[in-house]
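User: For a benchmark we're assembling, each entry needs the component sequences followed by a predicted structure for the full assembly. Here are entry 17's components. Please fill in the structure.
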Amino acid sequence: MKTEAVRMAFTAALLEAAKNDETIFAVTTDSRGSVTLGDFAKQLPQQFVEIGIAEQNAIGVSAGLANAGLRPFVCGPASFYSLRSAEQIKVDVAYSNMNVKIMAVSGGVSYGALGTSHHATQDIALMRAIPGIEVYLPADGAQMRAMLKYFVKSNKPAYVRMGRGAVPEVYKDEAPFVSGKANCLREGKDIALIACGEMVYHCLQAAELLVEQGVEASVIDMHTLSPIDKDAIIKAAKTGLVITVEEHCIHGGLGSAVASILAEECPTAMCILGLPDEDIYNGASADVFEYYGLNGSGIAKKVLEVLKK
Amino acid sequence: MDAASIAMRANFRRADVITMINKANAGHIGGSLSSLDIISVLYDRVMNIDPKMLKDPNRDRFLLSKGHSVEGYLVVLADKGFFPKEELREFSQAGSHLIGHPNNKVPGIEMCTGALGHGLSIGVGMALAAKRLNRTYRTFVLLGDGELAEGSVWEAAMAGANYRLDNLFAIIDRNGLQISGDTEDVMALENLAEKWTAFGWNVTEVDGHDVQAMMDYFSSRKAENKPHCLICKTIKCKGLPAGENKKEWHHKVPNEQQVKEALEALGVKEVDWL
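Assistant: Structure for entry 17:
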């Protein structure tokens, strides 16, 4: 199983893109290590901006850079960018329509045992509620590279959440990516699994396990959370049962987005898998996934339980 | 334009602001009137900007970080031809972009501001971009004194000094009052000049209603590897006799009689856009 950290795929691709486009800037908040921007800082110092530990300022500064025609990618931990600087994202970036890409790393529970202070499990809910900013969760490094080709051309603000550790590859070579168009990775008639980020891989694992139980599952990679692919959700509902899986609080994330579309367009039985509304279990992200059933076996087990009802 | 002409125009603009707020039955009159001479000096004399330069990469940038004082800003933009003055009639009306805080859908407004504490960070980004791109434009950010309690202002102050942004001006409308009362009672700011100096800025204090003094300041500024902070001592609600230096007039609306008295005091018969 080949694995790769999405943040490293991002920074390597950003460095290459920035070498050919001097308007591409990387902005960070004492996070060049954790984001893996060290090479960028060394090789392109004129396109690199260190802000120190001040996420609100970093977003405002990036909006100012964008006003001057630059293309800033502001990079740092998702937990701090999505909450501490949420107002700057709303006003300086989205409302002012500045071309700032917020590249949020170590999202979800990827900081593991560092605890809830460092987890970002509300960011999809927050960012989806802000008009004028796109929201993405790449499933693996290949998809991140495909997304970056879009980001360096697009003038729209975006929030992109990545994890920290290496994740198994979902896409073998070139990942198909069209903003706002979900990727159907597997067709099955019995149930549709809709996931984003690292959970896409775990859903594919679950689908394999379900075959042994005679269950055919569709797996949909909802890489764009806003604007979300309504047609893909309606199509998935034809299986009669939709289960969403996300590394996010069960309130306000992928599951809520899918539920609201199903409720309006084609009421369908569904189940939302994610992190519950409680003090989150401590441990490495794999431990947290295991505890809450957010891995292949856990998802498969839940599917069978739901199908029995 | 000389100082006397700018002062005269600022008086006409005060009449515009007072009338506009009366007609709309809404607005932040106190800060709009305290900052009007400052904005007038910038647009009439200091800044390299006009309505034909909206997409010019080398245009000077202005940010009204204390966005609630938008009325004075809109009046100046209209007066300078960024949009027709008659549109001031639409202020705060349903469907208008001329709302209670700057909106960059209005020609001449760079950014949507007014969530306090944001403007100086954006200004740092603009000024840093000019340095990196070898552009000569300057960036002017107008902040309220009450606004300085926002921690993000000081994050930006630190960054401005760190990057030696001598093309950046933080201008403080030091009228001494905020919505709850005297700034020194709500959250003490003094010694304000020492604070900015300690943060690495070149600090100057000036009478924010002395047009000539502000013109002299801007024309004598030299690039010294430090950002510039101009603390403008002002009178809140300057030009409305009923409201001068009274905290209640942070966002009170003048009645017809108060408008009449103010326009008489300003020597303006009536505004030309109603």
